[in-house]
Amino acid sequence: MKVNVEIVTGTFIDAEVSENATVKELKEKIAKEVKLSVKRLILLVGDGEEIRRMVKDDEDEMKLTDLGVKEDSHMYLFFKHPDLVCKEERSQGRGDDASVEEVSSEAESKRGNKEEDEEAAKGEEEDIAMKNGKEDREEEKKKNNGEETKDDDKVEDGKEKARGEENEIDRAS
User: What is the CATH number of domain 2-80?
Assistant: First the structure.
């Protein structure tokens, strides 16, 4: 029997299953197609004038035909967030056998935090360097009892020289 599964993203999967296939068998076929864990899949069944309803996790062993699914039935597929699946497993005491998907999701999360931490540390280092530079200038000024440093003297000399040259040009014209 062929069933049409519409994914929440708007794409369709045409799944071919036996007449007496279970919900779990259908979910396994779909999981391979969408490359997600079976635990994350949520199916809504009900076609045409029938009332649509969500297939509960404890109904995975039910036959599709018992849920009203027949040839060319249309279903909807939604996904549980990986964190929700992980919480459900922990509450049922199955937290130790985490799937590869959940572990990789957790690892991805930690990697993102590490990059953010490195950026924050770099920013802090720049702030400290700027602060130290300002403190160094203030210390230099204190050493000279508030007088300008030699570098500042050179700048002032250059300014005076430029003013003198401007005055000479003004006089010549």
Answer: 3.10.20.90
